[in-house]
Amino acid sequence: MLLRSSSTPILNSWLHNSTTGSGSGSSPEPDSLPQLTRTRSVCLITSLDDRIPPTRNVYDSDPKDCGKPKKGKPLKLPATPKPVKAEEIADRKRMTQTLVAGGGGGGGVCGGGRGSDYGSGSQDPGSWHGIESTNAYYEMMIKANPGNPLFLANYAKFLKEVKGDLVKAEEYCGRAILANPSDGNIYVLASYARFLWDAESDDEEEEEDELWFILLFSVPFSDVLVARAFTGTYGINYGRISDNIPPPESVVTLLKAAKIKNIRIYDADNGVLRAFRGSGIEIIIGLPNEFLRDISISQDRAIEWVKENVEPFIPGTLITGIAVGNEILGGGDVELWEVLVPAVRNVYNALDRLRLANHIEVSSPHSEGVFANTFPPSAGAFKESLLPYMRPLLEFFAQIGTPFYINAYPFLAYMSDPSHIDLNYALFRSNPGIYDAKTNLHYDNMFDAQIDASYAALEKVGFGNMDVIVSETGWASRGDESEAGANATNARTYNRNLRKRLLKKKGTPYRPKKPVKAYIFALFNENLKPGPTSERNFGLFKADGSISYDIGFTGLVPSSTSSMKVNSQIFVCVFSAAVVFTTKLTNNSLSENLLYIIYSVLRIHVSI
Fold this sequence. Notes:
The chain is α/β, with parallel strands linked by helices. The protein has helices spanning 4-7, 92-101, 128-144, 149-163, 166-179, 186-218, 248-257, 270-275, 292-296, 299-309, 334-353, 387-400, 410-416, 423-426, 446-460, 488-503, 565-585, 591-606; strands at 35-36, 44-45, 234-237, 262-264, 282-287, 318-324, 361-363, 371-373, 381-382, 404-407, 434-436, 441-443, 468-473, 518-520. Residues 1-84 are annotated as: Disordered. It comes from Penstemon smallii.
């Protein structure tokens, strides 16, 4: 594995010039707000001020939707609401009534059953204008009434069922509970518990369905399929330049607990491949750079390598791709540039001869060093000196259906010139962003801009239809004094916000219909990596298996009680609902403050 600092040159053309500096003009990230973290792929954050006085409201919930938690099916988008023009709203009261309605059909607050269509009319389903109009009204009313639990609860339901924004929906559902703890509405609590349960299973069931679809159709139509190496949108790089990280068997446990379905390794270690047998985790293995010369001149050697490092482990181990080399083009060894395409062809031909080419993708990831220009994104272009090697590689990848893999690091761009790059722009935080005059597109984060620069470069050489996948991206949690921005706070912010962004399964401004897919660098801190301090501190997990910082994952060795967070959240909600239900049946006035006390104490002790 090549060093991030040396193998991924940062171009001055990448730099985002901002008059705001690294902090001014942007809203600080709400790290100090209470956070309801969890151990799944949705992060729950509450931002309600505790000083908001409680109010009592009757929630428009159907008790039948607030039963015991049960496994939910993947969310379905209801029919789109009819857009309401401002001039059609007679007064504020009418708007309030519309928002409070929250959909018919008996949907439970914060995530019960599917509600009604939020209105009738001839608007086409899926109209973004209608959804955004309704969203704007909710935001307006909540801004005017931030402590109104009814608005908060119904907005959470709208976010979950209509917009499909689970992260924000969970936030507002939690705010609805905290907005009026003295009321202890049983339906809100039960629905919140169900929301946690359903949301926990949604991603897992969706990805399982996706995997079964691939397995089902790969058998009868294997001779026409193009190999696919990525399920979902989130993966991670499993580097092992270390003498103190957990064994592969424990890594499997760690990844399954985190529901991570995709990994990349930088070799084809047989012990790792044996450990992952039966795990259901998809693996891209690596053909290290030092093997390229040998493989490029001998088809037989390529076949031998595949027979030794791939064939014995499938289908038990889900080897879905082979990365031939890493960051070759633009690197310091020009001889490797010349042998890359022959090596790639020989590996593919070896797979084809062994009848594996339709199941295992052949790729080769690149660094940002392959670009001559990347700012603004529409100006993205490959270096002229690399085109004699890049063009034939892209031509072959286009023939076999391989995406363009790029190692994109906003961290390295910021580190190269922190005085001219807005840190918030690099960390997905609030910032003015940049405007691309050629495409008339606005970018509020560097990650998306880097991907779209890749699309622009591909277009310029005739490969505009090729997909782009981020093979590496991450942020160092420690660094030398010269490595600006390398600290745990920034690393947590980048990786947490990146995870949220990927889980939304949305595209970039230039390719909005192509969901972004990325492998995070890296799984562990690697203590034996050479180079600056940052090289040894990219891991989401420490060497002992505990989390480096909290972005919603659970470590092998709990650094806190984080391993019980999701179940604890469900327990708090269900238990609190039961207390309120019992006290209301007995007309016991104790319910007025009991819920708030129980919820607050449990929330502190389980750190939700």
